[in-house]
Each structure stands twice: as structure tokens, then as C-alpha cells.
Amino acid sequence: MNDLEFDLFKLHNIKEDNNPRLWISAIGASLHNKLDEIINEIIKEKGSITNYLKVKKETIQEIYNKAITNAVTQGNLAKILGVPRQNLYKWKECKRRIPVQVLDKLLKYSGIEFDINKATLETKSYTLQFNRQKLAKILADKLNINLSSIEKIIYNKKKEVPIIFIIELLNVWKFLFKKSNKDLITKLKEIQITFEFLKQNTNKAYTVKAIHNLNETLSRIVGAMLADGHIPNSDNSLFILDEDEVNIETFAKWMHEAFGIILLVKKSKWNRSWYTKINNKSIQRYFIEFFKFGKGRKKENYTIPNIIKNADMLIKKAFICGVLSFDGMVRTNKVIGLNIGSKKLRDDVFTLLIEDGVNIKKSNKADSTGMWRLYSSGFDKEQYKKWLSYFVEKSNKWFKIYEFIYGYSNKVTTLEQASTILKERFRIQNSSKVDINLILEIFMHYKTLTIKQILFRLNSKNIIISEHTIYPYLNLLRQMEIIIKKRLRDNTNLYIFNEYMKDWKLPNRVSKVI
Length: 514
What we know:
Number of helices: 22
Helix content: 40-55%
Radius of gyration: 36 Å
Low-confidence stretches: 510-514
Distance between the termini: 37 Å
Structural class: alpha+beta
Number of strands: 18
Shape: rod-shaped
Oligomer: single chain
């Protein structure tokens, strides 16, 4: 396997998949043809070809009775001859043609002199040691499953082939032909190429595309899951939640592109967030096996999966896009960055952003909540253009950065329209005590205000904030031409409400993914 290629046989977990309903199966148009090549090779090279013949009932019974006397029991005789006991009984009753090799051993053990050539009534070819039925029996015993289920696969009557069946078939192949581990890996790769779809071995499970190599779309998905995703302990599902509906809809689009599944995006009943849930064992195994996700709570100091670390910059950048789209921050004061609980992930993202030419800094220690921060350095438009590529297009964060570069252009005709847009674009954060609509309301009522007057009005509403906190909101309202700043003779700033609504330039509304 190359550095970016998945070993899909690892999707089978020996400890957890302890009954056939839990197995993961592969589906492919040419999968059975590839398996037939191996089965036919075993039968052709390891099957002993001989003649078999019909002998008169009386003759074979005489030979059998003499042989059984010498062997003491039928079980002993079957063991001596190396044949199943039930077959020996059928030959004795002349209900089945008897192989020449078996008859020859019977004659020697019975001590009866008999000319096989003169007694022959009919001769044909017969595979004594290996045929499909014998191979099916061996695999059924190895897998501890009923024979009929294996026969359906051996005889190409079932399109789904459990991964564990292929592994055990190749183990038989390796043992019989004395192959090396290198030979086995080569054969596994040849078969894996034929995997087109994956499915848990139950009727209710749905089929997903088999992804053979790490790509940009899957890397974005992994970044998003590492940021805001969760794998429960209780079932085969994955779950991701975000305040921005566009992010979740885009995630669903990525999942459809990668695995061919259609996901429902739902609004949370408990908060303002949106979420989607994937209930599929094959997909969950990708995250656990190849990207080392754990079930339940995230491990402390989690970081970028090694397979992504070893990939090219496009795949690394796609991963960062997933992380920042869901866990990144775009502040009102035009600072962009990441606030996250894992120092290792923060540091790895920092290194990759530096490698991509992004001007960025990082904190030397965790904040009071234990979060590690990285943040943009400077307010250069070219830098903002770089940042733009790390967020989902037309998401709330993407639009904010876009407007840092190109300004605002949306026209409104009513205060209700303006208020709705501002609420949607500049949602109040959990850590904030004020939002931009409240400041707009104060200006609409008082028209002209200094900084101290604004803080006084907020204080009367039990909102205590500093001048430093209010400046980003005033700058936004100025950029939208809702207020105008005038410098007074005493060097204080006076902010004046612009009542000409036709001059206002508001953010564009969030557009849903098409």
C-alpha cells in the first residue's frame, strides 16, 4: 500500500465483528471473477485427479466386509483410507461410484485378490482432494458459519462478499502454495482494486462507495469531524453540529461526493445549531481505523492524522479548511484564527498555515478556559484572500472575510430588512454582552453620540463593556455607512446616525449551498 492508499481489509475488526451480521462486505463487478481465479487455481493445482468406476454390489460388499473386519470399526477404516465416513458407506451400498485409489486401498487392506481392470464397468475423472464443495467446507469451519452461506459466495450466488471471507480464502491459498507474506499482500491488493462498494452484512444496512485513496474531499470531512464531530460509544453512527446551516449542508455535500450517501440536515431542538447524523458502520470504520478517531469523548491533545500529515499540501490544506470552517473564528475586529482545546492540533495547523504563506501568530499559553489560540497578523487584503480559501464558500465566516476584502454592497429599503441581515450575519456570541443591532437601536434613538455616551446608554441596560470592545462595532457601522465619524475640536470622536437609508451598504445575506 502507498502512503495515501487505504488497506480496506482492515475495516474488518476481529474482536468486534464476531458474528456474520456484524461483518463488512465488499461489492464489485469483477470481484467474483478475481476470487474465481484463486479458487480455480487451488482446485486445479491441489485437487487430485483420478478415475472412478462402478463395481458390482456383491463384489464391493465382500471387499468392504473383509476390510472392516481387519479395521475393527467403520471409523477406523475411514481414517485408514483418508475418506469421509459417509462416503465410505455410500460406496459400500454402491450408490456412488468409487474412486480407483480408494478401491485399491480397500483391496490391499482386505487381502482379497481382485483385478480392477476386469471389474470396471465405467471410468471417469474425479477430483478427490479439492473442489468447490470441499473448499466451502474448509472456509465454513474456519469462519464458524453454516455451509450454505459460504456456498452462495463460492458459487457466485451472492454479490456481497464479506471481507473476512476473502482474508480466509487467501490464507488457505497462502498455506497450500507456501506463499510469503509479500505474495499475500500483493494478492490482497489485486483483489482490493475490485472493491466498488461496502456494506454491513445485514439487509437494513445501506451501501456506500469504497474509497481506496485519501483525497481532498475526504480530508475536508476528517478536518470537520475533528473540529465539531463526534462518534458515540453506543452505535455505528457519526454526528456533526454547527451554528451555520451552510457548513452542515456543505458537509453533507462532501459526504455525498465521497461515499455516495444522502444526508438529512436538521435544526437542533435545543439551540440555534444545525446537525446531520451518519449511521453507517463502514464509514465509521474509516474514521476509527485510518484516521485513529476514538469513540466517545475526544482524547486530550489530539492532532492531525498521520496519513494526512504525510500527504501533499493540497490535501493538508483541505484538512485545515475542514477544521477552520467548523472551529475557526472570524472576529468583528477582523482577526481570524482558531481557538481549540488541543495544543498539538493548534501547533500543527499553525505550521501548515505558515508553510502556505499565511501571516499568523500563536499564544504562548492556554487561556483561562484551557483553549489554545492562533490568530492572524495584520489586515492585508492579500492575506485575507488566502484566508478565504480556508472556509466554506458562502458560509457566515466566509462572507465576513469576503467583506473584509471587498466591503459591503447589499441595499435595503426598510429597517426591518437591515435588522434581519445584521442579526443573521453578526450573531451575538456566548462571550459577548452586546450585539450590533442594539448599538444601531441606540443610534436610531439618539442620532449623535460620543463613545462615552454610547457606553453610558449601554450601562443603563446593565451592559458593562470597555471602549476597546465597542470600537469594532462602530467600525462596522461606519463601513456600512450607517453612521459617520466626525472629529471634534477637543479631539474626541462624534458618531452621527445616517438617516439616508439609500446610502447604507449592508452585508449580503447568507446563501444556501446549491
